[in-house]
Structure formats: C-alpha cells, structure tokens
Amino acid sequence: MLWRLTDPQSPAYDAASAAQNGTALEEFYEQMDQVLGEVMPKVDENTTLLVLSDHGFAPFRRSFNLNTWLLNNGYVTRKADAGGDSSEPFADVDWSRTRAYGLGINGLYLNVRGREREGMVDPAEADALLREIRQKLLEVRDPKDGSQVITRIDLASEVYQGPYARTGPDALVGYNRGYRSGWKTILGAFPAEVLEDNTNPWSGDHCMDFTKVPGVLLSNRKIEAQAPALTDMAPTILSEFGIAKTKDMMGQSVLQAR
C-alpha cells in the first residue's frame, strides 16, 4: 500500500504523502536488519540461520484486463444483448462459443469439453490453443510507451507435476514489472479497456513473471547452490536435522555441493 510513495511514476503517487511517509518501507527493512543483528550473536556454530523471502516486489502501475483481451481477440464470445463494462463475473458469456477465460490474478483457463460444465474445446486441441494464446499475449505492447506487458507464460503441463497438477489454471500469466492483472478481470469481468492505469493504493505487487521479482536467501553458512529455489527450502531444513527427504520431494539442500 505504501509502494506508491516510493515510485513517482505510479499513477497513485502523491507528493505530499510521499514527503510524510515515503521512507516507511526503507525504515521497516532497517528494523528487520536490526532484529537480525540481535539474533546473530546468539547463534552458535552448530546452529544454522536462514533468512528467506519467497518473492521480491515490483511496481504495479498499469492493469491488464485479460478477459477483455480474450474477448477482443475472439477467444471469449458474449451474447448479443450483453452490456459493455460489466462487473458481474462472466456476465452474458456464450460458453458454447468461448474457448478461454481468465480467473484469479494469474490464471488462464481453457473451456475444455468434459471438464467445464459447458466446455467446447476438444482436449486434443487444448495444447495447441494454449500455445497460440501464449504467443499472442507475449506480443502485447502497451500503447502508452511500447513496453512488453507480458514476459512469460508457463503452461501447467510444463511446470507442474503430481496428482494435482491439472486442478489449477491451464497456464500462468507472468506480467512484466509495472504490470498486473486488473482488479475486475481477476473476478471474470470485462472492463472497457485492455490496459488502464492502476490508481488503487495497492500500488506494488509480486504476482507477475517470477524472474522479475526474485526472492532473497541469506544464511550464516555458505550457500553452495548457484541458483537456489523455493523448492530447495524443505530439503535444506530436513537435511540440517539429518532427515532424508521423501522420494517425491523436489529440490535438495542449498548448503551442500551439487
């Protein structure tokens, strides 16, 4: 909520508020560093200390309305008597002629036959359709300054595994820094514009291309892994207690050479 006070380019930036509270985030980080400074002298040589953030942060200046884009590009069809900018979830959608829809902050779903109640996409054609949509979304540019809006789209079939791999979105939309899905589109609405300024006080976010908002990992022991991942954390902690990870657990200790 305070991110906008650190970002003069934010549509929600307010110079007067920034003058009063613009250093609040930096001061909070300083306080956390002080806490860490109090903890470290109390940690002996047999104690492992890990400091982790599972993601970073970025400005959220512009909203991308995925459902509006899908509508404009022929992947969603609304009934002939549908209104314009409706805030009702999927109001007046003609599901018999709708192939894809957005739901949630990063979720892209196909209207698959046999899965959705009124699904019409042949499961055999789903992968090709997802790749087609992915390519088009990666080509979207912001008319305001030509910036690439979406820098990464991960297909569930490529990044997830296990028994629940297909119970979430079919693809995850990774927005560029400065962008995120719009407030109405995440609930299934169709705002008039594909892209619009985010004037909401919620002016920073991390629900975007994960490579743009990396987390932080610090330790009092040498981190041997060249590219630690969040999936390495559980195996790391188990290893410190001498417990072997289960066979289906991803990752390995970041404190051991690979």
Helix content: 10-25%
Q: Radius of gyration, rounded?
A: 22 Å
The main sheet comes to: 4 strands, mixed
Q: Identify low-pLDDT runs.
A: none
Roughly what fraction of the amino acids lie in strands?
15-25%
Give the rounded overall mean pLDDT: 94
The rough form would be described as flat
**Alpha-beta classification:** alpha+beta
H/E order of the elements? HHEEHEEHEHEEEEEH
Terminal Cα span: 40 Å
Individual helix count: 6
| Tally of strands | 10
Outline of this structure?
With 258 residues, the protein is an alpha+beta fold. It contains 6 helices and 10 strands. The chain is 21% helix and 16% strand.
Task: Walk me through what this model shows.
The chain has 258 residues and is an alpha+beta fold. The protein has a domain at 60-212. It is 21% helix and 16% strand. Strands 2, 7, 8 and 9 form a four-stranded mixed beta sheet that branches. Strand 3 and strand 4 (107-110) form a beta hairpin. The chain is flat. The chain starts with 14 loop residues before the first helix and ends in an 18-residue tail after the last helix.
Top keywords for this entry?
258 residues; alpha+beta; four-stranded mixed sheet; 6 helices; 10 strands; 21% helix; 16% strand; flat
